[in-house]
Amino acid sequence: MNQDVTLTIVPGQKLVLTITIEAIPRAYEDVSHKPTLENILLKVSDVTGKDIQSIISDSRKFEVLIPRYAYCHIAHKIYGYSASVVGRMINRDHTTVLNACNEFKNLREQNIPDAVMLIKKLQQHFAVVL
């Protein structure tokens, strides 16, 4: 996945450059090599210490939401599974998955300590940029 960045410098104006890159590693560009949804969910469960039943439950507790958001983000945004398919895996509809991806992004951008720690752990287990 190549991304081009164009930078235009205007004299006398403040320069702000923001680059966001979410990359799929070369090993997973071929769809047959990407992890299954089950494997992603198992790995998130292992890394977070939350059992799968907790992740897919109706609980709105923060300690369960973060792993659920992470699962949705990894499966949908990183590995390209459709939001509908990801949602079916955790008994949610596609709009809930899209919201979870946005919430994960917000947690990451706000540097919430629990989220930052989880992201660092997940990056050790998934060869992707989260």
Structure, described:
With 130 residues, the chain is mainly α. 54% of the residues lie in helices and 0% in strands. It is built from six helices and no strands. The protein is globular, with a radius of gyration of 16 Å. It starts with 36 loop residues before the first helix and ends in a 5-residue tail after the last helix. The relative contact order is 0.16. Residues 21-31 have low confidence and may be disordered.
Task: Please specify the SSE layout and strand pairing.
Elements: H1 37-48, H2 52-56, H3 62-78, H4 83-89, H5 94-109, H6 113-125
Helix pairs in contact: 1-3, 1-6, 3-5, 4-5
Question: What features would you highlight for this structure?
Answer:
130 residues, 6 helices, 0% strand
Strand share of the residues?
under 5%
* Count of separate DSSP helical elements: 6
Low-confidence stretches: 21-31
Quantity of strands, as a count = 0
How would you sum up the major sheet?
none
Helix and strand sequence: HHHHHH
Mass-distribution shape: globular
State Rg.
16 Å
* Average pLDDT reading: 82
**Helix vs. strand class:** mainly alpha
Helix content: 40-55%
Distance between the termini: 15 Å
